[in-house]
């Protein structure tokens, strides 16, 4: 299959990245980073999470941050919402897109959500209805699509069933997550074959980690299967706190750099993206895993 | 095209990795590292280089090191040879395979070899004849196959012409190098299409850098085109001293891990390979870019 002409990048750094860092960024600092990401023309920024601050203290200023943004018209500002309580805060914060989450494996869902998959689905269904009633866009994350840190293998039937149910709720896009960073390109090829037989490619985003170095190999494989939406994190910040050893969202700079090399448009400004990654790297004060951040820095020093 | 069943890994860390490090490993330390690589059952180890010590002081003990090895029967011990003077030392060192090198771009060849491509070819031809007369195996590196730090674009015609000439000398395998780490999978696909129309896949190895995170994406693409030999460096050590910003050979652990995930046999023992990478990382005393080194360490700490 030919490569797509355009790809949409979903920047998840300020939410998925920061929720896994021990560093505290105050609201003004978060705004600065988000501003740098806006300047890079990212079409979607997941700015925070309305998870209880007890679980993710790094994002405890979610509402205040969201309300303080000088939002640009052509950017979708999103936040994670775990439940109806989070939804109330989300509406007060006045963001455009609500992202919900569920796991494809029972154990991971229980550890992450403190309830079963069957108990999670009606919550998502109701939240989706509430979000749509208020004219908001919706997204659902399915975790552990390519493997689970507790159950290891995750049956593809379960992924297909969940995708079907979530789409039947009217959710705009589903992001399939390689939570433990173990997806390999042949598996991506096979799982997407089954998925895209049943569902339209423009409803599916992929969320890869670069834990074992296969992030871009998986994205290239997904592009060839027809996928046109990818999650990525500025600097490669983040992972999953409930999946041991799963550090490393694929870095937005690395994804955008490869896409441009392939002749695919993203509308993202790579030099400005590097600047945003440099800023957050200095702030968290550790070397981030982004390849292009290193490569482009080493050219100038 | 279906993936191959078996792949041969060419371990180049002790030569290509060390030649780019400022750290000095004495002969005994190099032997220790090579021994750890032998224990991982790598089928090929490029142990040193007979380049003049003035250019690569890190490998100035080339002959002494080679003579001190307790060689295993099922491993090919190789070394880089730049010219006839190096060849004399190589024969004294009694190794199995001599690797020669040339660039696909004139400027890079001049900076690297201090002579033109046309002047380099007869030297390689003569060395190949001498090596074969002594019953040795032969390999030739072509650098800058996917781009040059000085000339940027490198015409594929030049790569095809050089490959043809080198094979006509009777050289056993040609390693095509992504010297600046800018090859992308679509380019790999296109260049291999042209190459494998003319030459048998089992004569071609690929040598990728992971500078921009595309190392494994390029390898996966090459596997699908039918390539079954890949160069890699333990821990991801090394780069090219004449190509600014080109740090990062693809890490042997990352390559082997992906191949095994894909169901491809390498005969390499991954846990022992991680041990070898841990050892060299401690020795050079900086964080190496290998993904699997990090991932497997973080599982145990």
UniProtKB/TrEMBL annotation, chains A, B:
InterPro entries: Aldolase_TIM, HMGL, PYR_CT. Keywords: Lyase, Metal-binding. Residues 7-274 form the Pyruvate carboxyltransferase domain. It comes from the Bacteria. One of its GO terms (molecular function) is hydroxymethylglutaryl-CoA lyase activity. The keyword Glycoprotein does not apply. Pfam families: HMGL-like. Its EC number is 4.1.3.4. Belongs to the HMG-CoA lyase family. This is Hydroxymethylglutaryl-CoA lyase. It comes from Bacillus aerius. The lineage of its organism: Bacteria, Bacillati, Bacillota, Bacilli, Bacillales.
